[in-house]
Amino acid sequence: MAARLLLRSGLRAVTTCQAVRAPALSRSMAAGGIPTDEEQATGLEKVIMNAMKEGKDPFNMMKPKSYAGSKNDPHLVPSITNKRVVGCICEEDNTSIVWFWLHEGESQRCPSCGAHYKLVPHNLSH
Amino acid sequence: MAHQAHAYHMVDPSPWPLTGAVAALLMTSGLAIWMHFHTMTLMSLGLLLLLLTMYQWWRDIIREGTFQGHHTPPVQKGLRYGMILFITSEVFFFLGFFWAFYHSSLAPTPELGGCWPPTGITTLNPFEVPLLNTAVLLASGVTVTWAHHSIMEGQRKQAIQSLTLTILLGFYFTALQAMEYYEAPFTIADGVYGSTFFVATGFHGLHVIIGSTFLAVCLLRQAQYHFTSDHHFGFEAAAWYWHFVDVVWLFLYISIYWWGS
């Protein structure tokens, strides 16, 4: 169920469809008497639900987006402070991960494969 | 609110693991004391502490998930893995008793008369109450699925009705089985037949009672609007457990009641 939820929300985010919430309406408290997550979710679950509706993933639950890793299209790494550890799997199926600190400012390159990484700082919404 | 940058749940400190461990200690030592000194005090104390622990621990989980919103998608995924692993461990538990049954019944020793059922044992007719029990549990599997679909489709009344029906069928099974136990022409002390029969079906019956209790808790929660049409993992866990109980019965019925008769 959670997987379906993730997939469904992810799909929605990707296609950015503004579909009518008709199915939800027919399942609400008013309709059948069982609340929807829309009506009743609370706390962190609600924060995540709302973020996913906008296509955002503030808690890094999904796989990171794919970038070319070149100078013009560096891997964008979100961070809530001014540095974050990055683990680069240079080639697919590599068993050793190259770890390094990525600092705010100019993009850095992986010491092994040279892929470009750029830190994107942002604040927690709460 | 949460000042964390991840979607997981870092649980607040809780006394229930400790009280649960103490309960386990008191129950086990209490069992030994009961066997040697004929007093049930220690064991009863342990049982009481166990019941209190279960009530308070699971109440806290409901508070954390339903009322505080800590059960985010990754947390729910973890709970799913947990329930599946637990049920798998229970499968292995029952596998042991099936092993014992087949060990003794596939090559019956001379002491039993070299045959199965052993000489002197009048088995239960598999086409009487045991067959009814099979129908009852299969029907309860249908009603619990009906309840799940009702929840997903937002139909409160149907959800409550089908869940209630499932629990009633569970009680019916338990009552029928209790009557069978009372009326059976053999006891647990009747050789390896009695041992394998009553230990395997007895543990199954205990699991039916546990499953019915879990479903009853879900009924209370559904009545109090805890479940949403998308997020109702407590109910799903209870339904998985109930299907597991049903499948174990089917194996028991085929192996012990039918083949073994």
Automatic annotation (TrEMBL), chain A:
Pfam families: COX5B
Domain of life of the organism encoding this protein: Eukaryota
N6-acetyllysine PTM sites in chain numbering: 65, 83, 118
InterPro entries: Cyt_c_oxidase_su5b, Cyt_c_oxidase_su5b_sf
Protein location: Mitochondrion inner membrane
Keyword list, A-Z: Acetylation, Membrane, Metal-binding, Mitochondrion, Mitochondrion inner membrane, Transit peptide, Zinc
Binding-site residues, Zn(2+): 88, 90, 110, 113
Gene Ontology CC terms, in alphabetical order: mitochondrial inner membrane; respiratory chain complex IV
Listed GO biological process terms: mitochondrial electron transport, cytochrome c to oxygen
Predominant cellular place of this UniProt entry's protein: mitochondrion
Sample GO molecular function, one term: metal ion binding
Stated name of the protein: Cytochrome c oxidase subunit 5B, mitochondrial
Organism of this sequence: Poecilia formosa (Amazon molly)
Lineage summary: Eukaryota, Metazoa, Chordata, Craniata, Vertebrata
Automatic annotation (TrEMBL), chain B:
GO cellular component: mitochondrial inner membrane
Coiled-coil ranges (or none): none
Gene Ontology biological-process entries: mitochondrial electron transport, cytochrome c to oxygen
Keyword Mitochondrion applies: yes
Catalytic activity: 4 Fe(II)-[cytochrome c] + O2 + 8 H(+)(in) = 4 Fe(III)-[cytochrome c] + 2 H2O + 4 H(+)(out)
Annotated TM spans: 16-34, 40-58, 79-102, 129-147, 159-177, 197-220, 240-260
GO molecular function, one term: cytochrome-c oxidase activity
Domain Heme-copper oxidase subunit III family profile positions: 4-261
SUPFAM superfamilies to which the protein is assigned, alphabetical: Cytochrome c oxidase subunit III-like
Protein name stated in the entry: Cytochrome c oxidase subunit 3
Record organism: Poecilia mexicana limantouri
